[in-house]
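User: Hello, can you help with two protein structures?

Assistant: Certainly.
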Amino acid sequence: MVNKQTRDWYPFVGPFDPCPPIYVKSYYVPPNQYIPFQPMGLQQFSLQEALRLGTLWPALYSPYESKCGKGAGNE
């Protein structure tokens, strides 16, 4: 079973809200929420790749995309 890591939430938009409405908000669900225990013999990244990605196990890897300052510092 493949679980999508991003979920959408549709907040209530009241008729008297002072701010512009946000109809859809997205959030990430960490992959560790889908693994209740660590099974034996789980596949592992190489040491260099694990240090670069921040986890030893591919099943627990989740890429992080910053929503603030897209493109800042990458120029």
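That covers the first. Now for the second protein you mentioned:
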Amino acid sequence: MLDATPLTRAVDHFADRLRAAPQSRLQRGAAAEALGLARELARRAQRLEDAQGPVREMPDAGMFAAADQVMVAGHDLAAVLRTEGELAEAMRLVEEAQKRAGV
């Protein structure tokens, strides 16, 4: 079984940084960046769980929910990752999104 702890720690850290960010930072794009990441992580988790099933897009629940959406999607993906390559790619996505968000 793959240890995806690094991914859960990374998304938890990103979520904490988003929660601590001022509203102005969220409005300037951090929340949108987080939602984009959450949607991509959720899409990947759904594909790993059921490659043929429909992909449901995570809704935009508002800028103050973006941190929770990143955390939930990241934990969901961590639960279904199978390879070190999948883990590395997910980690890269989180790191890049956090840099772009500026938090």
